[in-house]
């Protein structure tokens, strides 16, 4: 039984998650010949204040990006 664990920053909608798990399930069915009922997918979400890249918290990077966009408008 294939099991897929996805780690992601929190904030996706339920509709986005439904689309993702449907596409992943289809890919396993097509490429691994694994019946969809046997595929387990877990989405592990982390708040943006608990995740960082390049020494910067995701929440700070988003704030900085929005601030730069509003200044250039």
UniProtKB/TrEMBL annotation:
Q: Which UniProt keywords apply?
A: Isomerase
Q: What does the similarity note say?
A: Belongs to the 4-oxalocrotonate tautomerase family.
This protein's name? Tautomerase family protein
What is the source species? Answer: Novosphingobium flavum
Any one GO MF annotation of this record: isomerase activity
Q: Where is the 4-oxalocrotonate tautomerase-like domain?
A: 2-58
Protein's UniProt keywords contain Isomerase: yes
């Amino acid at each position: 039984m294939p099991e897929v664990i996805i780690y992601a920053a929190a904030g996706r909608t339920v509709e986005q998650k439904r689309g993702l798990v449907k596409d992943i399930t289809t890919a396993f069915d097509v490429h691994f010949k694994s019946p969809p009922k046997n595929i387990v997918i877990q989405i592990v979400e982390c708040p943006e204040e608990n995740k960082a890249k390049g020494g910067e918290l995701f929440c700070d990077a988003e704030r900085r990006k929005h601030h730069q966009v509003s200044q250039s408008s």
